[in-house]
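Changelog excerpt

This revision adds worked examples to the README so contributors can see how folded entries look when concatenated. The first example is reproduced verbatim below.
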Amino acid sequence: MEKRLGVTRFNAIPARLHEMRSMLTATLDAVGCPQHLRRLLVLAVNEACMNVIQHGYRGDPAGEIILEILNNNGELEFRLTDFADTVDPAKVKPRPLDEIRPGGLGTYFIQRIMDEFRFTVPESGKGNLLIMKKRFDKANEAPSHEL
């Protein structure tokens, strides 16, 4: 059974990510998510939001982002909706890790942390909906040191 744990809407301004991370942390704490997994999930969602701000809205602070958090029978689901130009999922790839330069690791972190992620079009038909999933039973595993 799908249960909505929380939702937040905010403008595409990097400073607003602090509020999103606080809400996400509190929500994950409320469902008993262990600290090591909580940190990884907050990192992945934050990186996804930063990608929307930088690449989707290209720094336009008027852009809006919606984060919805659900629990579907032990699977945490993070739905990130934006209203920027539709993204081509085939072009969303992490940069090679041997390239020494700042940035470009957000997609890598998302791939390593989440069990599944995919892009789709929101019900409105405009923008992007990124769905990221993580099995909650994996919360009992040891922290990943491969990041």
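The second example, added in the same revision:
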Amino acid sequence: MRRVAITGMGIVSGLGSGTAAHLEALRSGRSGLGPLTLFPLPGMPPAPVGEVKEPALAERRVFGRSAALALLAARQALEGAALEGHGVLAVGTTTGGMPESEQHYLQHRGKEGTADRELLRHHPAGTVADVLSAELGLTAERHTFSTACSSSANTVGFGAARVARGAPWALVGGVDALCRLTVCGFYSLKLLAGTPCRPFDRNRQGLSLGEGAAFLLLESEERAAARGAPILGFVAGWGCSADAYHSTAPHPEGKGALAAMRAALADAGLTAADVDYVNAHGTATPANDKAEALALEALFGGPGPWTSSTKGATGHTLGAAGAIEAVLCALSLSAGFAPPTLGLVEPDPQLRVRHVPAGGVAAPLRVALSNSFGFGGNNTALVLTRGEA
């Protein structure tokens, strides 16, 4: 089994575009949450979101918002790298071209509209991978993962497993764009907070949605060294579980989450004692944070290592969350900096978590655990380790 190196990363979210902008945001404690401006929602109370303000998204007029976000992040990850051989392209998403489909529906109310039917062209979730393959000139098998909020975390694990077993390279990541269905759906479930989310806080009221994309270029350590590529980190382990406890609620004791974390560590050949930092799923809903805290306590036998949720900065980006947080973990490892949980003011005393204090912690981090837990009990954990650069 070959070690799987991260040789490129790209990211766009409400915090900005590119790894440098995101590392600066983590260090400064800057949040990307603000008012929703993409579309009106009459009759709904306002709720802050992590909306992308990015001029480079002009391509959305051709491919739709989701594919434009994905292209932006994927191009950053490649940075002109020549991808030789038949590789792997894996994309995680839950909304696909839904933003444009909604426009068509609102115009025609379900009737056939011929003048603007191009809005429906990229509706299927799998078309994002098709657009990336064509526009980036990739020779690769294409996969689309749609396992709710663990979608793109699974692409990272899957791609790493394929590279470890001989694939020359894997471009993996995820994307989700804000749309009416998502915002109204979470509002109907009473999971949206009217103010910026507060993960693990005693007074947490719910999540803040976001949008964005992130991609990672994965290669074997030997291949990366042969072509002189910088090694930004390693994907050391992947674990997933499907506890199917409830369609939207996590298992109250976090049993599925615990199984995924244990599997990831076993895959990496590491123990819980080796973990220096946990990027928690941390959505700021009462049920999720409690279940995850119980799972973490069971894994570490106590408060454990430094733990934070970056969703207070980006919002919950759903299918893109796993890849976005994998990139943020790799940045944290390389910078030796554990970011704080924005919005955490008064930690819930019932949750035994070792929170990163306000301002973050400078520490020589070597191993990070990144959690992504989705509806339906789709739980995924990734183990990342520090690279050379």
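Reviewer comment on example two: The first helix runs from residue 19 to 28. The mean pLDDT is 94.
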